[in-house]
Amino acid sequence: MLKIAYHPIYKHPLPEGHRFPMEKYELLPQQLLHEGTCTQENFFQPDFPEEKYILAVHDPEYVRRLKDLKLDKKEIRKSGFPLSQGLVERELIIADGTIKASEFALKNGIAMNIAGGTHHAYTNRAEAFCLLNDQAIGSRYLQNTGLAKKILIVDLDVHQGNGTAEIFQNDPSVFTFSMHGKGNYPFKKERSDLDIELEDGTGDENYLSKLKEILPQLIEETKPDFIFYLSGVDILETDKLGRLACSISGCKERDRFVLQTCRDLNIPVECSMGGGYSKDIKLIIEAHANTYRLAQEIYF
């Protein structure tokens, strides 16, 4: 059975006019239930993780100041969010969702987190709506508990996974692959193990041909026993922050290829949703929902 991490805190309220679309975290599970892609049985509710799993990735002093709401104004501004206790709790619960989803993926081949993909969070700082790096935390959890040795992070959000790259920059046991917009945020990029930079306006044909050429070869070379997939839908032409030109069908084909490749090679995969900022919320929900529909189709 497909297992999906969801918690009501994912839709934590933000000040009116904030550009981060929190409502998608409530609407997406509603859509999946309404159309019959999922039932309530598919969803599980994460909780607060043990702190040792957070500290396996993040600097203890940073975590302490984050939990105590002691970040300075510059740090808060860089995070993109107004800092609050509820927001910190949300980030911790998202991390636990990815930890638990990774365990379900080991059992069932795949598992998902309605939120997550917080790939801009560094070892010791928050950035761009990301306070804690959920897939980095999940990676370390699997390694430190002996559940996986070699991990591949496939980050297909439109923005480079700069925090993930920094966290694992000197660690050959976690291979970081980011395919993202060359001219997009972050404008000062880190170095992933493999960065594929795409020009503004890249559409379905070029995007998919690059991915289909690179991913199978990368898996063959790195031989991971677990994959974390960041399936951001901000590659859409309609995305306000994206600058690429992929269609809904192209984004769906991207997900189909990644998930089918993992399935064919029998490599467990955890999927975190990442970004999506189209003006029309219906497009965001449709693009994200496709990932879940495909997971059901391919695996179950």
From TrEMBL:
Superkingdom, taxonomy of origin: Bacteria
Keywords linked to the UniProt accession: Hydrolase
GO biological process, one term: epigenetic regulation of gene expression
GO molecular-function term, one example from the UniProt record: histone deacetylase activity
InterPro entries named among the record's database cross-references: HDAC_classIV, HDACs, His_deacetylse_dom, His_deacetylse_dom_sf, Ureohydrolase_dom_sf
Domain Histone deacetylase: 18-280
Protein family per UniProt: Belongs to the histone deacetylase family.
Protein name in UniProt: Histone deacetylase
Protein's organism: Christiangramia fulva
Lineage: Bacteria, Pseudomonadati, Bacteroidota, Flavobacteriia, Flavobacteriales
